[in-house]
């Protein structure tokens, strides 16, 4: 059995963007893509946001063998999405699928302070999914996507699928190693506009854990607070083990969100995929960063004149 459609004859992950400006544009790309997969007997999956999914569902025959998944559930955390999709893809390949088709969507609520982590996700999956015969389309609503998001979409997707049926290379596409090695400054979290609730120089692991416990206003789920404590502990331990002095922890909080930054004077991890994939040999902090990414709602890592910073966020 062979691959079909635009990915026919292609080996590995065929990764496309769909930058649509109307529902008709979305349907012009999504419907042929999905029906083509169903007709070929390929696992065909929709993981769009709720509104876009309802538009696409209404345009498809009711008996089409197409699976609809909750996009919100799949795209809760970048590292978690990679882990979940790799498991899903491996299962289909083990069952003999010659190709898997997925159309997914990162919705507008991810375009703010957390966008940098999702841009890194879009870049990293070019590597993370390349062992699978996957053809995926990542849909972006240009009516809500800021200019920075659009720029990053073109830099992280090798090609774009257009409403006229063409599939064109993106001239500004950047290979994942180059994109991920640029630890640019993320958009500040709104809580960071105020003075931090805690600002601790050379924190111990006990200091870090207690700061998170003290910041919990009782509206976060206990498991989420525990997960953040694990992530902050990993970040502080990594700073001492793999970074350079000085180490500094800062924490901001509201009733339903906690933001923690851990900064050290070092350059940060050498592995560009650190955190998103369980890479590293244990001596470079790879596993600890991966645990932190699994444990928090949002993680950003960046370099500036002060060194390397990891920002951990839990809550709304």
UniProtKB/TrEMBL annotation:
Q: Which GO terms describe its molecular function?
A: protein serine/threonine kinase activity
**ATP-binding as UniProt keyword:** no
Tell me yes or no: is Coiled coil among this UniProt entry's keywords.
no
Q: What positions does the domain Histidine kinase/HSP90-like ATPase occupy? A: 205-313
**Matching Gene3D superfamilies, A to Z?**
Histidine kinase-like ATPase, C-terminal domain (3.30.565.10)
Which InterPro entries does the entry link to? Anti-sigma-factor_SerPK (IPR050267), HATPase_C_sf (IPR036890), HATPase_dom (IPR003594), MEDS_domain (IPR025847), RsbA-like_anti_sig (IPR047718)
Which stretches make up the MEDS domain? 15-158
Provide this UniProt record's keywords sorted from A to Z. Answer: Kinase, Serine/threonine-protein kinase, Transferase
Query: NCBIfam families under this entry?
Result: RsbA_anti_sig
The name on file for this protein is Anti-sigma regulatory factor (Ser/Thr protein kinase)
* Organism name: Paractinoplanes atraurantiacus
Classification lineage:
Bacteria, Bacillati, Actinomycetota, Actinomycetes, Micromonosporales
